[in-house]
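Task: encode each sequence below as structure tokens.

Item 1
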Amino acid sequence: MRTSTPKRLLAAAVLIAVATALSGCGVVAFPVRVASATAKVVPVAGDVVAYPLDTTADVID
């Protein structure tokens, strides 16, 4: 039994949409990584402040 062309196109479109949505995680984590890198510049307290930001970015990825 063969599936019809519209069903194949719909399945392909859903697959592409899911792949695109999953690849966008790096884009969401980018501002958090920038904030973490900026916080690390601050002497003494920078690493303490950057640790939760790094953990958050890792969870997003």
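Item 2
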Amino acid sequence: MIVQIVAVAAGLGLVIAALGLALLRVLRRRSIGVMLAVVAAVTVSATLAGVVAITLAMIIDGRPKNIVLTVVGIGGLVGLGVALVNARTVVRASRSLVGALESVPPSGRFTPPPAPLPAELQTIGTALEQAYERLRLGRERERALESARRELVAWVSHDLRTPLAGMRAMVEALEDGVVDDPETVKRYHVQIRVEVDRLAGMVEDLFELSRIHAGTLRPTPTRTGLGDLVADTLAAVEPLARAEGVHLTGEADPRVPVYADAGQLGRAVRNLVVNAIRHTPAGGTVVVRAVAEGTAARLSVLDGCGGIPEEDLPRVFDVAFRGEAARTPGPGPGGGAGLGLAIARGIVEAHDGEIGVVNEGPGCLFTITLPSA
């Protein structure tokens, strides 16, 4: 008898399950509420079919059989009703999530629906919020980069046009014979050479910056002493400091080794020191220090510029930022297109290091932190 009951219930359950799966396959593109209703209907139908079949097969007749069938039918209807209500709740929650997606403002900030969601939909809502936040930040960075590119093109065009106009005027004066005394001719030749050197430096900076932005800057690290690098840098910029009337001092611990590309890192440090010299008034002092701090090596450049406004500090390493309204390059070899600090940041970050600036004492303190070797 038990074997017969199991066989009948299992057989009916398999038939109904197969029909339910076929129906779900047909409705796979429909609402999740419809699919949940189908699942509930299959479950209730399989249970009812088994109970009804066994009840009819048993020796129950008259009033008792009617009572059993009535109770089973009511139970099935209740179960199906609860399933439909649950399906409707899930559909409402999913529609509220879709509505939140459709109402995302132009700013790109996604706000999950205020109504409580089922755990899975809540997880999806949180993931969407994080994804939209990353997209929003990415768009902001892209807009900032595009704005920086446009400013760079405009500013560098001006910076290149100014010395070119001066050289053209001097060349035309020499060609037309307006200037013929040897002293003035020599001075014009020297000035033209200075301007050509400045233009060459700008082009080199632009090329280096393009490599940094393209991600093609590949340092070749070797074991390098920061003390030697500081000494070489001070020796290279000493003529500029002397011409500007700025006193240079260096304090380097000889036991500060790092794994770095000496040429690239030297250029970054030189850019910082040249920037410090340009913004330090005559009679001021620029101090360069290299020390070891635990597992890191720290190189700092302290100038006497008088400080940078707090609102400008985050922009110091932006492309073409000079902290001044005038766009004309300064006189002498220290003048440039305002790319030195941006290049220094790119080089330091390519070495897995950090660079920063704060106001300290008579001016600004630029700091490069690198992993120690």
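Check on item 2: DSSP finds eight helices and seven strands in the chain. The helical segments are 2-26, 32-57, 63-102, 119-176, 182-214, 226-244, 262-279, 340-350.
End of task.
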